[in-house]
Design brief:
Layout: E1 2-3, H1 6-26, E2 33-39, H2 43-59, E3 62-68, H3 74-85, E4 92-95, H4 105-111, H5 123-131, H6 139-150, E5 159-163, H7 170-178, E6 187-191, H8 198-203, E7 207-210, E8 228-231, E9 235-238, E10 245-248, H9 253-257, E11 262-263, H10 270-290
Parallel strand pairs: 1-11, 2-3, 2-4, 5-6, 5-7, 7-8, 8-11
Antiparallel strand pairs: 9-10
The structure holds guanine.
Guanine binds near residues 95, 96, 97, 119 and 139.
């Protein structure tokens, strides 16, 4: 069994990105600049945005966090996005989700300039991805594809099961894995909360991507010997340790790792690859905006 070391691979990619940024700056050009809008005081969102700032700093990107109270109106938020869309100094733009109930996530996502949409959430980018046109792809599936590529995992003709159908992970993941490409060319089944016989379906899979958000959902009996298992889940569960919690994926690691050929750990697997995928997109957007 081989551990898919997302932490190690993400550090290699960050090094590649920072070399590119050094060359940009050495040529007298401004570094890529990610602007992140954060509305309200959601603890998890604060943490995610903090990670994004740190990641930008580490590769030499500029970053700005624009904070707004929960009370901001949709109109005010949209006009801020319009302003950032046309700010030539901002090369990538994200709005951290979730948003307060009175603001339409759809209206916000659709307001972002698709060429700055480094989250890959705008329907123009989703459409471009599905049709195989150049696109920004949502960070988690993009990071998983990169991890598979860097480990040389065979995908052509494989049966792949994606657990979860979210716009951010499950749907784009299924689409990318069925593309005529490497990694890709898989026969993909998407399972979700209304699926029947998930255990049986998984047991026939060569590759499983678990993105349900249900701790330790995928157990050893659901996995075929030699399967490749990618765990997107990360949930805090109470534990008798110093922190009072431990991080648990959607995969029951001890059981499944005994059967898998490749498996991602939690933490240190998909998470760091997601973070670095946003940096990759931000660099890509820089070239779109600046050229
Ligand atoms: N909320 C949870 N994940 C994400 C993400 O990848 N991007 C944004 N903008 N919000 C999120």
């Amino acid at each position: 069994m081989i551990i898919l070391d997302g932490k190690k691979i993400s550090m290699e990619i960050k090094k590649e990105i920072s070399e590119t940024v050094k060359a940009i700056v050495a040529a007298g050009k401004p570094a890529p600049h990610l602007a992140a809008i954060l509305v309200g005081n959601d603890g998890a969102s604060e943490t995610y945005v903090g990670h994004k700032e740190k990641d930008c700093r580490e590769v030499g990107f500029r970053s700005t966090v624009l904070r707004f109270p929960d009370s901001i109106s949709q109109e005010e938020l949209l006009s801020e996005i319009v302003r950032l869309n046309s700010d030539g100094e901002v090369t990538g733009l994200i709005v951290q989700l979730p948003l307060p109930k009175h603001i339409s996530e759809r209206a916000v996502i659709e307001a972002i300039n698709p060429d700055k949409d480094v989250d890959g959430f705008h329907p123009a980018n989703v459409g471009r991805m599905v049709t195989g046109f150049p696109a920004f792809v949502s960070a988690t599936p993009d990071g998983i594809i990169e991890l598979m590529k860097r480990y040389g995992i065979e995908t052509a003709g494989k049966n792949c099961v994606v657990l979860g159908r979210s716009n951010i992970v499950g749907r784009p993941m299924a689409n990318l894995l069925s593309r005529k490409a490497y990694p890709g060319d898989c026969t993909v089944t998407v399972c979700h909360s209304r699926s029947r016989n998930i255990g049986e379906i998984c047991a026939g899979a060569d590759i499983i991507v678990a993105a349900l958000g249900v701790p330790e959902f995928l157990t050893g009996d659901m996995v075929k010997e030699g399967a490749v298992v990618i765990d997107v889940g990360i949930t805090r569960v109470k534990a008798d340790n110093r922190n009072g919690f431990r991080l648990v994926g959607d995969v029951k690691f001890d059981e499944v790792s005994a059967k898998a050929s490749f498996i991602t750990p939690v933490p240190g697997g998909v998470g760091p690859m997601t973070r670095v995928a946003l940096l990759k997109n931000t660099l890509k957007a820089y070239y779109l905006i600046k050229n």
